[in-house]
Amino acid sequence: MARNIHSSPGNVPALRVLFVAFTLIPLRSVTASGQQQHNYFEALQKSILFFEGQRSGHLPPDQRVRWRRDSGLHDGATAGVDLIGGYYDAGDNVKFGFPMAFTTTMLSWSIIDFGRNMGPELRNAVRAVKWATDYLLKVTAVPGVVYVQVGDPYSDHNCWERPEDMDTLRTAFKIDAHHPGSDVAGETAAALAAASIVFRSRDPEYSRLLLNRAVKVFEFADKYRGAYSNSLYHAVCPFYCAVNGYQDELLWGAAWLHKASRRREYREYIYKNEVVLHAGDSINEFGWDNKHAGINVLISKEVLMGKAGYFESFKQNADGFICSLLPGVSHPQVQYSPGGLIFKAGGSNMQHVTSLSFLLLVYSNYLSHTNKIVPCGQSPASPALLKHLAKRQVDYILGDNPLRMSYMVGYGAHYPRRIHHRASSLPSIQAHPAHIGCKAGSRYFLSPNPNPNLLVGAVVGGPNVTDAFPDSRPYFQESEPTTYINAPLVGLLAFFSAHP
Ligand SMILES: *[C@@H]1O[C@H](CO)[C@@H](O)[C@H](O)[C@H]1NC(C)=O
Fold it and tell me: Using the 8-state DSSP alphabet, how is residue 175 labeled?
């Protein structure tokens, strides 16, 4: 199932929205009555558990998702390297390095900002990061090379097969000096740097390893500039084609290295390259391909703390971006469904919902710590408003929506039963030990029955712009979960479980 989940990149100047006058629509219009109080902590637990269902490689004895088994145990063998481990990105069995790295960065950011709100779940969240970073250390083990994908997406998507049964091509794709990929390498550096902060006091040696590797990978990304979609077009497009260019990942990598290392060279890199690398451009989304909004929000924290006046323009970009998300603003890049869900064209909408809500929440926190608001032309937005908007999105996901449907599997009374996910929809190895071949799986794909294995915590692509949801495997844009939908949600749920 090909998944071109990229929405078309826009070119709306971010600051334009500052001058647009708008009125806020009533924020609680749709679900003001009859809302239930959500159990955010339960949802947090489940959102983290989901990552265990996405694991590739040798599963450890304390694996909690018991219907999964070891898989991908020869990954890397065709290239003579060990690339066992990591995560499947979504409902297929390919290990796509670009979204995996972004997922890791966002899980780490969730822990850095909201780990103190996770209680006993913090341990599981950190383990979810380590499952990714152990793999990212493998793919970056050889200097000047990054393995960015294991699995041939055409071969994989042509089959409906359990990961444990995989007999599709497990080609290992790499970038190097002659086949550059500053986008995926920049994101990998960001992930390693962000994770080094997560492990700084928990495991200083591992943290240093991550940070040192991040430095090397960033050097490589910056020195050999290019888009991996050019170098590896047929392997990565149209699946995770980097339409948005690699400039944002270079700034993003530098921003995380700056935060993790406090070395002056990264501050200078950001300062020097802000204009060259277009820090304020196409700041209309935030996801595995486009980091602009994230860069500006992340760096604004320092501006707000008064530690980096020279980064003031990042704060202005972040303000403009945040204003563009407010309901009532007529903004071509962000719509709201009648039921109140953020909606952006391009499919797998929930990735936008969770990542944009995450930015609303972290920005709100940075503002409240410093008693600031976002100007937004005539209608300044308070930190409380931004939190309220983020919470409204989370509540929609958990069931406050016209269908009264939770979009997280295993949470609430009604949730998606036919998610587009091979391992969840095929019988488990325990239930059906015999091999199920590539095409033999089709009858499970086409079956009207619910999936036999609950992928608890998986959040799917979600309803369309009219709040309708088919709950049907072939509608992959609506029914497929992805790791980068959940990663920012972990932070959101942690915060709201502590501040309901
Ligand atoms: C949304 O989904 C419903 C049900 O599947 C469908 O009838 C409707 O046409 C869809 N709307 C849009 C705008 O895609």
Answer: E
Residue spans of the domains in the chain: they are 29-498
Q: Catalytic site residue 222?
A: no
Three-class SS state of 173: strand
The pTM (predicted TM-score) of the whole model is 0.93
Q: Does domain 29-498 have CATH number 3.50.50.60?
A: no
Rounded Cα distance, 474 and 453, in Å? 18
pLDDT at 22: 34
**Phi, psi of 95, rounded to the nearest 5 degrees:** -100, 100
Ligand 1 centre and the CA of 466: distance in Å?
7
| Tens digit of each residue's pLDDT (9 = 90 or more) over 99-130 | 999 999 999 999 999 999 999 999 999 999 99
- With pLDDT > 70 as the criterion, what percentage of the chain qualifies? 92
Q: Is 420 a catalytic residue?
A: yes
Ligand 1 pocket: which residues have CB below 6 Å? 464-466, 468, 470
**Spatial separation of the C-alpha atoms in residues 362 and 368, rounded to whole Å:** 10
Selecting among 75, 92, 249, 395, the annotated active-site residue is: 92
Considering only CA atoms, which of 251, 281, 244, 256 is closest in space to residue 269? 251
As a whole number of angstroms, the distance between CA 329 and CA 319 comes to 14
